[in-house]
Amino acid sequence: MTGLVTGEIFLPLWSPGPGSMDSEMAKHIEALRIPYLKGKPNVLLHDLGSFKDDPVLVGRLKNIFMPNSHTFVYLLSP
């Protein structure tokens, strides 16, 4: 798993079958670079480890978990 996150291991990429959708949609799907595992697209592994490369997401995380501060999470359910 660490190898996937760090980019040392690459999985084959899934692409839609020919004629399964219009070409514009197929190009969009291929551009997502969704991994292909056990004969199916695997969305759980899509962009695994890319969180650290997105400055907006890193900024949000820094606002949630700040040094020398307490963070409380309230889970409410009906």
Structure description:
Helix content is 31%, strand content 5%. The relative contact order is 0.13. A hairpin with a 2-residue loop joins β1 and β2. It has 78 residues and is mainly alpha-helical. The protein has a domain of 50 residues. The mean pLDDT is 77. The chain has 3 helices and 2 strands. The longest helix has 10 residues. Strands 1-2 form a two-stranded antiparallel sheet. The termini are far apart.
List the helices and strands and how they pair.
Layout: H1 2-6, H2 23-31, E1 36-37, E2 40-41, H3 55-64
Antiparallel strand pairs: 1-2
Low confidence ranges = none
C-alpha termini separation: 36 Å
Major sheet: arrangement of strands = 1-2
Helical proportion, percent range: 25-40%
- Estimate the mean pLDDT confidence: 77
Q: Which H/E pattern describes the elements?
A: HHEEH
Task: Tell me the fraction of residues in β-strands, as a range.
Answer: 5-15%
Question: Could you give the count of β-strands?
Answer: 2
Q: Which geometry do the CA atoms define?
A: elongated
Largest sheet: 2 strands, antiparallel
Treating each run of at least 4 consecutive H or I residues as one helix, how many helices?
3
